[in-house]
């Protein structure tokens, strides 16, 4: 009696389930990262143009200070606002805020970067308090957000 | 009476009976590329660094602070003339000369050859001077190679 050798059934299709799992994780990562970056850098600020600016490769230990018109459509008539992480900060509280950030960093306080994002049409008297507060808090890593000419 | 043609007609049983995942993989890859590119385009800002942001009674940039500033200083005043016009006064500069970044940078480069290389520049804008003009002067100074540039309080 001849034995029939039944060949094993070959599944020619690649199992894509793990691939989709990883791709979904990547999508969620980019979604969250984009949302967090958007929250810190306030929209509606047109930063000044400059030619000597560089990219900031290391984004760790940074604090972004947004200085802008309270109502961009109206301009200076409704005053200005200083924001850090979506919270309005009074000019007199800036140095305290910076010192708190320095205390939070502990031994790495020297790596704290203060990024000043000022609206280009804003009078200097509204940006100066941020610079003064940096001096009061002994911070010497201050960056001005700019955009390239033509940007 | 049946012939042996029944075996010829036998089909392989397909054990993989799940849905076709190929279109889903295509869509997911498109989404991934979209989010990767959008996060890249979202960050278009550049940055200019400053190590001595301002002069203040205590703290950095002052004689009482932790970082000393050079003793030789040069003030650059920026006055608002109304509208979009500002007056930049520095190094005995002729105020009628053009004040675009390229002209300012060329002027400061010439001025740098006549001063101490460690000179401390103090940018002193008036209250009403737009922030863009302050950055423009700072940009020109950085392009001319001045390393010690600080800002005073608004006058």
Give the strand order of the largest sheet of chain B, numbering strands 1, 2, ... along the chain.
Answer: 3-2-4-5
Under CATH, the topology of the domain at 73-151 in chain B can be stated as: Nucleotidyltransferase, domain 5
- Based on secondary structure, the structural category of chain A is alpha/beta
> Given the structure, what is the number of helices of chain A?
3
Helix content of chain B: 25-40%
Secondary-structure-derived class of chain B: alpha/beta
Give the C-level CATH assignment of the domain at 73-151 in chain B.
Alpha Beta
Distance between the terminal alpha carbons of chain B, to the nearest Å? 112 Å
Basic shape of chain B: elongated
Low-confidence stretches of chain B: 1-6
Percent of residues in beta strands of chain A? 15-25%
CATH-scheme architecture of the domain at 73-151 in chain B: 2-Layer Sandwich
SSE string of chain A, helices as H and strands as E: HEEEHEHE
Number of strands of chain B: 5
Catalogue the unreliable spans of chain A: none
The CATH top-level class label of the domain at 62-144 in chain A: Alpha Beta
Straight-line N-to-C gap of chain A:
83 Å
- Side by side, the strands of the main sheet of chain A go 3-2-1-4-5
């Amino acid at each position: 009696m001849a034995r029939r050798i039944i060949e094993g059934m070959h599944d020619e299709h690649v199992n894509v389930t793990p691939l989709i799992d990883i791709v979904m994780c990547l999508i969620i990562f980019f979604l969250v990262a984009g949302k967090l970056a958007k929250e810190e850098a306030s929209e509606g600020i047109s930063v000044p143009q400059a030619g000597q600016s560089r990219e900031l490769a290391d984004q760790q230990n940074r604090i972004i200070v947004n200085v802008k018109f309270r109502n961009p459509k109206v301009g200076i008539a409704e005053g200005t606002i200083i924001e850090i992480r979506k919270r309005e900060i009074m000019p007199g509280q800036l140095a305290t805020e910076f010192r708190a950030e320095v205390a939070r960093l502990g031994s790495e306080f020297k790596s704290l970067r203060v990024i000043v994002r000022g609206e280009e049409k804003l009078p200097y008297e509204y940006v100066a308090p941020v610079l003064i507060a940096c001096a009061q808090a002994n911070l010497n890593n201050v960056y001005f957000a700019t955009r390239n000419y033509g940007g | 009476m049946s012939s042996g043609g029944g075996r010829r007609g036998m089909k392989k049983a397909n054990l993989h009976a799940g849905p076709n995942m190929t279109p889903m993989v295509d869509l997911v890859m498109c989404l991934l590329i979209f989010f990767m590119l959008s996060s890249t385009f979202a960050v278009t800002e550049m940055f200019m660094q400053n190590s001595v942001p301002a002069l203040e009674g205590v703290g950095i940039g002052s004689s009482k602070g932790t970082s000393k500033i050079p003793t030789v200083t040069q003030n650059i005043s920026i006055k608002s003339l109304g509208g979009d016009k500002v007056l930049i006064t520095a190094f005995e500069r002729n105020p009628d000369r053009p004040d675009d970044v390229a002209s300012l940078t060329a002027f400061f480069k010439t001025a740098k050859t006549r001063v101490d290389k460690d000179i401390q520049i103090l940018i002193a804008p008036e209250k009403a001077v737009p922030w863009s003009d302050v950055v423009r002067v700072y940009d020109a100074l950085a392009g001319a190679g001045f390393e010690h540039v600080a800002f005073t309080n608004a006058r």
